[in-house]
Every structure is written in C-alpha cells, then in structure tokens.
Amino acid sequence: MSQFCLNFKKIMIPFLWLILLAHIRWVSTADLANVSTSQVQNIFILAGQSNMSGRGGVINHGQNGMANETWDGEIPPECQSNPNILRLDAGLTWVEAQEPLHQDIDLGKVCGVGPGMSFANSVLMRDPSVGVIGLVPCAIGGTNISEWARGGILYNQMIRRTEAALQGGGKLQALLWYQGESDTETLEDAKLYKFRLKRLFKNVLHDLQSPTLPVIQVALASSLGSYMEQVRKAQLGINLPNVRTVDAKGLPVGMDYVHITTIAQVQLGQMLADAFLQTQTTQAVLLPIQTTMTSNAPISCSNFVLDLLLSPFR
C-alpha cells in the first residue's frame, strides 16, 4: 500500500466512523418516528402466543386436517371499544383499540377475541382514576419460549414496541404473558421451560429498566402435546418477586382443544385485571420509565452504506 493510501486511511477512518455512528443512530430511532403524541397514561404489554393474541370466536371450517379459519366477528360487551383504551398498531401509532387487538401483529393467522380488551375495560370499570390505557400487542401464535429469548426477533420486537409506546411519556404498568402450549410437545422443552421463563422475565425487566414491573402470567388451560402438567408446574413454581400467576385451567376450551373460547377470554381478562389491581395495593406507585432506554435489540446498518464507505480500502 502506498504512503498516500496510508495517510488517506488515517485521515478518513475517524470521519467514516462518525458517519457510521450517525447512520446507526438514525436507523435505531427511525422506527419510532411514527409514534403519535397521545395522552396514554398506563401502558401494558400483551405477549406470548395464540391464546394471548386471541382466537376467541375463530372457527375452522376445514376438513381432513386442512385449515380454513374465519372469525365470527362477535364482540362481547366486556370487549367493546372505549375511547380511553388505545392500542399501538404495527406502524407504532396509537389508535383506538378494538378487537382483534393483534390483527396487524400476529400476521398470517386469523385473530379473534383475546383477553386484552376485557382486561382493560375491567381495570377502568374498577378504577376510573386510572386514566387512558395503552395496550401494546406483541403476541405471536405458535411460538416456543425459546423463540422469545433475548436477542431474537420476537424479543427485540417486544422491547422495541414497548420503547416506542413510552415515547409519549406514559408509565409501563405490567407485562401480561400467556404462552407455553408449544412447549408441551417435547419433554426437553417442558423440562427447560422454568429456566427459560425466569430468564425471559429477568431480561425484560432489566432491558426496560423497570425492576419492579409486575409480570402477570397465565398458567396453561390447554396444550399441544403430552407435557402440559410439566409446563404448568414450571409456571406455578416461578418464585420471582414481581410475578403473579393467573391459572386458566378449567376455562372453556374450543373444539380444537387448544384455544380458549370467547367467553373464557372475557373471564381471563377479568382475572388478569384482578391480579393487576392487587399488585397496586401491595407496592408503591410505579415510577415512569425514562424514555431514553437501552436494550439488546440489534441495531441494523445497511450493507450498502458499509460497502460504500469501505470500498476505498478493499
């Protein structure tokens, strides 16, 4: 390499790093640009798999194992829209919440009634002073807990959407979690479930800088495999101080033996509301999370920009 190239490299590398850092900052914040200013005061994360996403009222008309699903469109009174309940849509904009809450999040699936609207309406009915509720749908049907590990797509999306929701200055009040049916299919997953679940909850609280955040999880009402009791035992045995468990066992399950019914979703939402309101009587008022948060969500930088900047040295 000539002396000219060496000198050029010494001069340009610091400059290139400044450009790269500016680009990375732009990419990491660009997806928050669409967040609208709102009066959301209390923010709740809805995460897990299909029973959190909502399959109440979803009917499979298929035959011979073929799926041909539709939602019946029936919305119970407990799940009706309310101007004081908003949801963060896929474009990171607050809109008035309505069923199905996960229709633009749990893509490729037919979504129906879940527990989120029943939960929010129940909280508002019992404590009108709560103010505007913001729901952050993040659940994806059919997902194993290993797919929610820190650094993965689902985890990163949940953290990123939550950070976006907090840009308006609201308080993060709880994580509502319903997942585990997919982990009943193999003994290995069932055995590892407790460890993976505890690690997930600890990582979320750490990455959202909210060590006192209540986590309200649901113990399974149904399963996809033979190891339901092992997973339920893991869920009921979680001993983290912030975790409350609502047991869904006994709630009505649909004809597919996996998804709870619309009536069950209404009941579950009310049970989740009970558990959340109980946390408010046993701990101090939650402090708002700082809007400048860090997480382990990967920051992307386009290969085009890297190739353009580094091409003189190749």
Automatic annotation (TrEMBL):
<dbReference type="InterPro" id="IPR036514">
    <property type="entry name" value="SGNH_hydro_sf"/>
</dbReference>
<dbReference type="Pfam" id="PF03629">
    <property type="entry name" value="SASA"/>
</dbReference>
<keyword id="KW-0732">Signal</keyword>
<dbReference type="InterPro" id="IPR052940">
    <property type="entry name" value="Carb_Esterase_6"/>
</dbReference>
<feature type="domain" description="Sialate O-acetylesterase">
    <location>
        <begin position="41"/>
        <end position="278"/>
    </location>
</feature>
<feature type="signal peptide">
    <location>
        <begin position="1"/>
        <end position="29"/>
    </location>
</feature>
<protein>
    <recommendedName>
        <fullName>Sialate O-acetylesterase domain-containing protein</fullName>
    </recommendedName>
</protein>
<dbReference type="InterPro" id="IPR005181">
    <property type="entry name" value="SASA"/>
</dbReference>
<keyword id="KW-0378">Hydrolase</keyword>
